[in-house]
Every structure is written in C-alpha cells, then in structure tokens.
Design goal:
It contains 23 helices and 7 strands. The termini are far apart. It binds flavin-adenine dinucleotide, ligand DLZ and iron/sulfur cluster (SF4).
Length: 509
C-alpha cells in the first residue's frame, strides 16, 4: 500500500494525489503539527482556518470511502513535524511508497526532495500541482529569453490559454485591461454589501478552543473568526461575492474606508490558497455573471486578472527565482520593523486602521497591504526579510509562494522590478485621494515639513532622493526627479530634516 500525504493547503478533491491513489488499497494522511503551525507565528485565525478545514476535509474523504489517518495537534507530542508523522505512519502500515502533490513552499519542498527518500527508505513520488493554470515549467519557458518579464503579457497568454473573456481569439470588449476604470474612491454609494454569516459546528468550536489554548502568544484575535472551513461554505462565500460585491469590485478595488474592512472585495484568497476553491472555478463564476449581464466588464476583467494574471505570475516568479529570491535586497534596506506592526498602535490613522483590520480578521485588502503598511515599510527602508515575515504571519491567505513576491517584489522593490516597472512609493496624497483616513488623523496630510506633517510626505521625498542612483534612469520616475530638483533648496532641506527625524523616531509615530 501507498500513503498519500495531504498538506494543509491541498484541501481539494481534484488534487493530483487523490487521482493517483486508489481508495481500495492506499491510505491518506493529514497531520496537524507543531512545526508547520509555528515556523512563523501565524495569526491565530490562520491556524484555526487551516486546522478546521483539514479536519472537515478528512471527514469528507472518509465519507467518500478513503482510509484516512489524521494526526491531531498535541502540544506535548514528540512527533512535531510532517516528516516525523509520516515516518510513524510508514512504519505502522508498512507502506511501500509515499505520494505527494508538489507543495507550495520552497522550504518544505526542499526538505521533501533532499531528505525524505533516504530518511524513509521508500520512494517518495511528487506530482505536479495542476490546480494552477500555469505550471512552473510552463512559466520558465515563457520567461526564457525575455529581457523583461511583465505581468500584462503573461496575463494575456493566460486569457488565451483559458479562453476566459475571449471571443474569436480577441479579448471581450476590445481591450485586455480595464484598470484605468478601477480607481474610484468610495463616497457611500452604492451601499456596502451585507455580510455573510456562516454556521459554526463542533469541529470549528473544538479547533477555536485549541488555538486559543495553545497559540495564545500568536498575533491576532479569534473572537471575530468568520472564515468558512468547508468547501460548501467557501462556495457560499463565492456565490455571495458574485451576487453582492462583484458588480462594484472594479470601481472600488483601490478604495479604502475608515471602519469598513472588506468593501467590495471577495475574501476568497484563503479558500483558493488552501484548496477549498480552485482558481478556475472562481474565474468561471465571475465570467458567467458577466455573460448574464449581472456584472460589468471592468469588474469581471479586473477580478479575473488578479487570479489568472497576478496570482499565477507571482507563483511563476517564486519558483523561477527561489531560493536566491528570498535573500534579495536591491535597495539595501536594513532598518528593523517598527514595533507598531506588532502592537498595532499608531498616531497615523491609516496605519492604525490597517493594523486593526489585520489583527481583527487576518485580512486586509490589497491596497491596504500595498499602499499603506507596505508603502510605509518601503519609504522607511525596512529590511525586506523582516517585513516579509510580518506579512507571512498576519494574513489567513499567506503562503510563502504568494506572499514573498508580493512583499519583497511588489512592495519593497527588492528584486529589481519583476512586479512593477517602478516602485509603488506614494505620499500621503495618494492615501488621502483613495480613502477618508486622513480625516481621522492627527497628522496633516497637506503638510510635508511641519511638526504635525503627514509622515508619508517627507518620507516619500527622502526615499526618492536616497535612491536617486537606482531610479533616476527609470523613464517612469523622470518626472518625479524633475519635480524634486525644481524645489527650492530650503524646502528640500526641510523635507530631508523632517524625514530624518521621523526615521530616527519611528516608534513615536
Ligand atoms: P480580491 O481583491 O477580492 O481579489 C481577488 C483574488 O485575486 C484574491 O482572492 C486573490 O486570489 C487574487 N489576487 C489579487 N491580488 C493578488 C496578488 N497581488 N497576488 C496574488 N493573488 C492576488 N495574496 C495572497 O493570497 N496571499 C498572500 O500572502 C498575499 N500577501 C500579500 C502581501 C502584500 C504586501 C501585498 C501587497 C499583497 C499580498 N497578496 C497576497 C495579494 C492580495 O493583497 C490578496 O490576494 C488579497 O488582498 C486577498 O483578498 P481578497 O480575496 O478579498 O482579494
Ligand atoms: C499553514 C499551515 C499550518 C498553520 N499548519 C499546518 C499543519 O499543521 N499541517 C499541514 O499539513 N499544513 C499546515 N499548514 C500549511 C503548510 O504550512 C503548507 O502546506 C506548506 O507550507 C506548503 O505550502
Ligand atoms: Fe495616513 Fe498621513 Fe493621512 Fe494620517 S495624514 S491618515 S498618516 S496619509
């Protein structure tokens, strides 16, 4: 007999492992283990979501006739890693082979490839994870020989490959990308969608109690845990999104509102990433809404682009560039992550609000991650590895393959620019345009040099000036350098002085 190990982010009935094995002869193994739950201090809700979804998935597999061994989390167990549980099960059942679907994170896949076959003394066969639209091998072929990798061109190929929003070989609506329509601030209309309340069962409650008891020192709160933990619940969230949020997803994709944590976003990333939904079924549901006339093209195209474009693209970059990628620091940033990222307190209303959101729900939407907490880390010159670890810990959807390129690449521009032809650095003006945060802030967004001036403003110009060498030749940055160089010397000096003070006093902000 063979053992198929199913990881906490492989909870899909379409998983390669389940197609390879035979329920009549083979066994499946799922294991809650200390090492996976603590290799970073994951937000409590992330652990609860994964453990509960694993338990529900194991129950579904049993109901389908599989023989499933399940290792429940036990803080006192000596069996603390996936390898150790697997070893125990191989010995116990006399297994002849281990079957796995390629795992999402380099860290674990390297251990599987390098250590497991010798350690277990039985073959370990790893199958491609074909839940993605583009395999790592296909991405490598696409990237080969290109001087520059650009998401937009990759995305067009994925549209052609999937046929999503395509008609007679051309993009529906005559253009590939409607992003310029998708940058509206939200001014109260249309009303925000109702939230979907999901029922909790005994498995959920057991897991929530377990996490509260054993992971009390991990970040975040459990009292607002609202995540679905079964495929059926994830499908309900998808349907709710399509009906109540998708029509406005595009228009308000970049908007931020004080006290409103989700706006018109889908909240689907944790389900897609742990396998309860597949990326293609999510995109197809959105496409059907377009053909039915229930959602406009800018919304549906924008949504599909995030999934078959950005999501697949970052995964491609990850496997193409790891392990060196994780060490990249092309802007030479060395400042430690300020304490506010942990305690969540800040006089900056935008940062405080994004921290609150994050700790309450293990969630923040893309623009909060990119243009508030991420932008601040970029402007303040935080060490990329510190801020990457933070993003890997605090979000329910965070797995290294997707978090790392987004943080190290898109936010920190530490990889030299695969994810953006210029850094996503911005002053407080951007945040003020896209949100109402500044109205709740004790800093003045209109000032850059006064004692109460918005920290983003002077830090922005400090960033521009200190990276002149790297960016002055970038055609998309030329205007910015021209504006800075035209400023009066006294103004430049005041900006630099204010920024230096802020950098020396990050814990006061
Ligand atoms: P929606 O706004 O509804 O978008 C729809 C879907 O598109 C998402 O569910 C997600 O599957 C996909 N998507 C959107 N943007 C991206 C992107 N840039 N990369 C990959 N997929 C994307 N996403 C993760 O899934 N895991 C992470 O660990 C993660 N870390 C991030 C870290 C930083 C610093 C930044 C800037 C972004 C990160 N993202 C990550 C991308 C994005 O912020 C989240 O996917 C999104 O906020 C999830 O919320 P949602 O499901 O409501 O997304
Ligand atoms: C994130 C996570 C957590 C918190 N716990 C487990 C676990 O106990 N068992 C498991 O199989 N997977 C867990 N995961 C997800 C894994 O970390 C993930 O499968 C690997 O990082 C590979 O992507
Ligand atoms: Fe953020 Fe500056 Fe606006 Fe305050 S004034 S909310 S710090 S952008």
């Amino acid at each position: 007999m063979r053992i198929g190990l199913i990881l906490g982010d492989q909870l899909s009935h379409s998983l390669a492992t389940l197609r390879v094995l035979d329920p009549a002869h083979d066994r499946l193994l799922l294991a809650e283990v200390w090492d996976e739950a603590t290799y970073v201090k994951h937000h409590k809700q992330k652990i609860a979501l994964i453990f509960s979804a694993m338990r529900h998935f194991a129950a579904e597999l049993r109901a389908l006739g599989w023989q499933v061994d399940y290792h429940h989390f036990d803080p006192d167990s000596e069996v603390r890693s996936l390898g150790a549980v697997l070893q125990q099960q191989i010995d116990h059942h006399g297994a002849a082979e281990v079957i796995l679907t390629r795992c999402g994170e380099y860290r674990l896949q390297r251990e599987i490839d390098n250590d497991w076959p010798d350690r277990f003394g039985v073959p370990v066969r790893v199958y491609e994870d074909d839940r993605f639209v583009c395999s790592s091998a296909e991405f490598a072929v696409w990237a080969e020989g290109r001087r520059q990798l650009r998401m937009e061109f990759f995305y067009r190929d994925m549209r052609r490959k999937t046929g999503l929003l395509m008609e007679n070989g051309a993009p529906v609506g005559g253009q590939w990308n409607f992003d310029t329509d998708n940058r509206k601030p939200y001014a109260g209309e249309p009303p925000l969608p109702p939230s979907l309340e999901l029922e909790r069962d005994r498995i959920d409650n057991d897991v929530l109690a377990l996490v509260e008891a054993h992971f009390a020192n991990h970040p975040g709160h459990l009292d607002r845990f609202r995540w679905g933990t079964t495929r059926a619940q994830a499908q309900a969230v998808l349907e709710h999104f399509i009906e109540h949020r998708l029509p406005w997803f595009g228009d308000y994709q970049d908007a931020m509102v004080y006290g409103e944590d989700f706006l018109f976003h889908s909240l689907l990333s944790p389900y897609i990433n742990c396998g309860l939904l597949t990326p293609l079924e999510v995109c197809e549901a959105a496409e059907r809404a377009y053909w039915r006339g229930d959602a406009p093209l800018n919304a549906v195209e924008g949504f599909i682009r995030q999934i078959i474009g950005w999501r697949e693209y970052v995964r491609g970059i990850y496997w193409l560039r790891m392990p060196q990628y994780a060490q990249e620091n092309r802007l030479g940033n060395e400042r430690a992550l300020p304490a506010m990222y942990w305690h969540g307190e800040s006089r900056m209303a935008c940062m405080r609000e994004c921290f609150r959101n994050t700790f309450d729900h293990a969630y923040a939407h893309h623009i909060q991650r990119l243009m508030v907490t991420g932008n601040f880390a970029l402007l303040a010159g935080i060490r990329p590895q510190d801020i990457c670890d933070w993003y890997l810990m605090v979000y329910a959807d965070a797995f290294d393959w997707v978090e790392l390129p987004n943080t190290l690449g898109m936010v920190m521009h530490a990889d030299g620019g695969y994810l953006g032809s210029k850094p996503y650095a911005a002053s407080g003006n951007y945040i003020n345009r896209m949100s109402d945060y500044c109205r709740h802030c004790e800093y003045n967004v209109r000032s850059a040099t006064d004692a109460d001036s918005c920290p983003f403003n002077s830090l922005y110009w400090h960033f521009v000036e200190r990276h002149r060498e790297q960016f002055r030749v970038n055609p998309r940055m030329r205007m910015i350098y021209r504006s800075y160089d035209r400023m009066a010397e006294a103004k430049k000096a005041a900006l630099q002085q204010r920024a230096e003070w802020l950098l020396a006093n990050l814990d006061e902000l």
